[in-house]
Design a protein that fits this description.
Elements (H helix, E strand, L loop, with lengths): L2 H18 L3 H15 L2 H13 L3 H14 L4 H14 L2 H14 L4 H13 L3 H14 L4 H13 L3 H14 L4 H13 L4 H14 L4 H13 L3 H14 L4 H13 L2
Helix pairs in contact: 1-2, 1-3, 2-3, 3-4, 4-5, 5-6, 6-7, 7-8, 7-9, 8-9, 9-10, 9-11, 10-11, 11-12, 11-13, 12-13, 13-14, 14-15
Length: 260
């Protein structure tokens, strides 16, 4: 290895060390300065990592766009860029890059799922269904796709098909909190089944105890069937996990106004 290569590797290692010790500004400055001399995209990748670790998503998008000028066919970079656009809520640009990934690797179910999910967020149910089912044609046990198909049926108020899909998701993976969550909601609003609604929502909570909306939906079940103390406890837990859960705050305020 030449001394020049030794030096480049030493700089990269120093950048990584700075990042790992959360000295992000120093890491970014050193990496950017060295990149101007070496054009080594590994340095830009470390800049990207620093931005991601600080949740600076727009800065991450800028550096990824710069990196793609040097490696326009790098699928990993394209996927990262799609993920960043998705996180900012720019679903049109996210779709643009997710489609590039799924077109290049159509046999990867996760790529089909990501494209479908972005169509879903863009309210294009037809294309979302298509890509979710593409994922299932590759892997029939792709739980994320099954759950999202169930959600599409749920949003369309096609509750019978939603139930079938969520139960299928549970059949393939008994540890699917999303499926139990939606089954619990459907049992309350469509089947009017207090026992099953509570059972499914408590199962969702056991699997994902940090998801505030599980407790809110359980509170709504208790509300519907007049179980006031249990409703209050569930609402308090929801707001403990997510103080900004507006629906839970409004329901709790209503309870206090009514003095019950």
């Amino acid at each position: 290895m030449s001394s020049k290569q030794d030096s480049a590797e030493a700089v990269l290692n120093k950048v990584i060390l700075l990042r790992n010790t959360k000295k992000y500004d120093e890491a970014v400055e050193l990496a950017a300065k060295t990149f101007r001399k070496t054009k080594d995209n590994c340095l830009n990748n470390e800049i990207f990592n620093c931005f991601i670790m600080q949740d600076k998503i727009y800065d991450a998008i800028k550096i990824l766009t710069k990196m793609l000028k040097y490696e326009p066919n790098n699928l990993s970079l394209i996927k990262k860029l799609a993920n960043c656009y998705f996180r900012t809520g720019d679903y049109k640009n996210a779709l643009k890059y997710y489609k590039k990934v799924s077109d290049r690797e159509p046999a990867n179910p996760d790529n089909q799922y990501n494209t479908g999910m972005t169509y879903h967020y863009l309210n294009n149910s037809k294309m979302a269904y298509q890509h979710y089912y593409n994922a299932l044609s590759i892997n029939q046990k792709h739980i994320a796709s099954l759950n999202n198909i169930g959600i599409l049926y749920y949003e369309a108020k096609d509750f019978e098909n939603a139930i079938k899909i969520f139960k299928k998701a549970i059949e393939f993976s008994a540890n699917s909190p999303e499926a139990y969550h939606h089954l619990g909601v459907i049992q309350r609003i469509y089947k009017n089944d207090e026992e099953l609604s509570e059972l499914y929502l408590k199962k969702a909570i056991r699997l994902d105890p940090m998801y505030a909306d599980n407790y809110y939906q359980l509170a709504l079940t208790y509300n519907k069937y007049g179980r006031k103390q249990e409703e209050l406890t569930a609402l308090q837990k929801c707001l403990e996990l997510n103080p900004q859960h507006n629906s839970a705050k409004q329901l709790l305020e209503k309870i206090f106004r009514n003095g019950s």
